[in-house]
Structures are given as C-alpha cells and as structure tokens.
Amino acid sequence: MAADNFKLTLHMVSSLDGFIAKKDNSVSWFETSSYYKKGVAGQDAETFLKTIDCYVMGARTYEHAVALSASYGWAYGDTPTIVVTNRILPAERKNIEFYSGDLNVLVNERLKPNYNNVWVAGGAILAKELLQLQLTDEIRVTILPVILGDGLLFFNHIGLEQALHLKDVTAYKNGMVELCYAFKKE
Fold first, then answer.
1. How far apart are alpha carbons 152 and 45 in whole angstroms?
2. Could you tell me the residue ranges of all domains in the chain?
C-alpha cells in the first residue's frame, strides 16, 4: 500500500461542552438523541465500517470496549485493532495487537506501509499525544445533543495551536452533528 494514500483520522464522540465520558468513565449519555427534521439519515454503518483498515485506541478505551462488548458485541469487528498501552492486557480477539513505544514509529513504520484508512477510536491521552506530534490528518468529532457539565475532556491542555480546514459538516436526524476537519500541513 502506498503511504501517500494513508490517512489517520482521530474520531471522538463528544457532548456539546467537549466531554467524551463522565467522571466514572460511563457513556450511557451516548443514547441521548433528539429529532432534527432537516437532518439526514446516517449512512449504512456496515458499508462505512468496511472502509476502515485499522483501528488504534488507548488502553482505557480498549477496556471499556471489551466491557461493552458483553452487551453489544465487539464494535470493531474483525478489523485489525492496535491498543497503545504500557500495561499487559488480555487480547480478547485474534485481531487485537498491543503496542508500547514511540508513536512516530507506530504511525510511520507500522501503519503507513500497511493501511490506507486508520481511525483512532478513542482515548483522550492518546489523542493528545497524536495531536502534539502532529501525526493526525483529520479530526472527526460527533457532537451529541447533551451538556454533561463535567467529565473527561476531549481536548485538554494540548498546548499546541494548529490551523484546521473544515472538510464537512453533517447534521443527522437524531440531533447529532459531525464535524470533519483536515489539518493544514505546512
């Protein structure tokens, strides 16, 4: 696969006030919705998910996904999933791989030669590190119609100013809004 086709997308679901989880790490508020008449219906999830070659996530996101999979199934299917962690965690599926080390090496030497469309599926700490190292190509934030008031922030003291280019905005019938920004590379 050609590295010039490579895209690393940082995706996060957030409350309107920028929180990605409550203080207890719960995401029950994900089911919050409201009807927006002018919104579009979501695209076919199964077709869309087939466009993602690999997922990358932090350890806490992985642990949370494993816990949720008991009730809802494994959200990432058979797509290769790399968990960035310094801890030893159980591999719940054969497509799970663990990585500990330099994120530049992960992205440039392991992901770029093997994949075209990689999604970072969560982890505020991982997101912050990828943003600080300027390794992401785009950010997709899906904003749910709820204000949490407190919890784990998506963008928390990144310490870096970066110009973005708005690629797309989609308002859905369930009241969610997705913003897609590309990073302006200098």
1. 27
2. 3-23+34-183
Distance CA 184, CA 161 (A): 11
Residue 118, CA distances (Å) to 5, 45, 50, 68, 100 in order: 11, 16, 11, 22, 18
Output the CA–CA distances (angstroms, integers) from residue 160 to 39, 96, 134, 157, 185, in the order listed.
Answer: 34, 31, 9, 8, 14
| Segment 135-183, tens digit of pLDDT | 999 999 999 999 999 998 888 778 888 889 999 999 999 999 999 999 8
Q: Return the SS3 of 98.
A: strand
- Specify the CATH superfamily of domain 3-23+34-183: Dihydrofolate Reductase, subunit A (3.40.430.10)
Q: Provide the pLDDT for residue 186.
A: 59
Spatial separation of the C-alpha atoms in residues 27 and 137, rounded to whole Å? 26
The secondary structure of 3-46 as a DSSP string is GGG-EEEEEEEEETTSEEE-TT---GGGG-----TTPBPPP-HH
Q: What's the confidence (pLDDT) of residue 34?
A: 86
Residue 160, C-beta contacts closer than 8 angstroms, at least 6 positions apart: 131, 132, 134
CA gap 131, 161 in Å, rounded: 10
